[in-house]
Amino acid sequence: MAKLRITKSLVPNLLTLVNLFAGFSAIVYISKGDIERGAIFILIAAIFDMLDGVMARLINATSEFGAELDSLCDVVSFGVAPSFMLYQVFFVNYNEIGILFAALPALAGASRLARFNIQLTDLVEDKLYFKGLPIPSAALTIVSYIIFILPNNYISESITVFSTFALVILVAYAMISDIKFDNIPRPNKKSFNERPVVSIIFAIGLVASVVSKGVFVFPFMIFYIVVSTIRHIVRFWKLDVEPEEEIDDAEDD
User: Fold this and answer.
1) pLDDT at 240
2) Residue 3 lies in a domain
3) What three-state secondary structure class fits 7?
4) Cα–Cα distance between 179 and 176 in angstroms, integer?
5) Considering the entire predicted model, what is its pTM?
């Protein structure tokens, strides 16, 4: 008789599956028109997505299986669920074009996770950054926009249409891009000493989001994306210019 093999990776994997269950629950509630409860379950999924990684490192139970399982669950919770929310709240009025645009975050998220998995070895060496916007961050950007910005009519209807289409394109591109996005600093002295400015900015963003009851989340996520993009452009420009300067110097000599 075969015996059930229980390993220490069982606990983080169960937490990962709770992430998936929360994502599925979000889709169910969104389909019923309960957008706020759907958003809550996406947030719950994000919490368990963070906890499974913390637990895996804590008990030294990281594995290839766990990484693949985590990505599969993330596609549902942070790709399909936010995309479905976008469709139900906004893109349902745009027929086939609406379906295509609503699906972009899910499609880009799946591609980003596939790339992440095949680059796991490289990423271990660079824990300070992610290549491409992490899919939970993309989901947080979309959900905070839907919950806090769209219903409050901060901008005119015509601009809202443009901004929603633009936001989806921006978030989808950010996920599949080569832009480096800062990893969330860990709440310890070592992390603060390594990146004091980044730690302070994230701390301010967290406090402001709590004080504003979530309203500040969307502006902070846009700030995160825009600043990371500008930094990437500056670095690319420097790399492109410096070799030319070296050639000119050599020719002058």
Assistant:
1) 63
2) no
3) coil
4) 9
5) 0.85
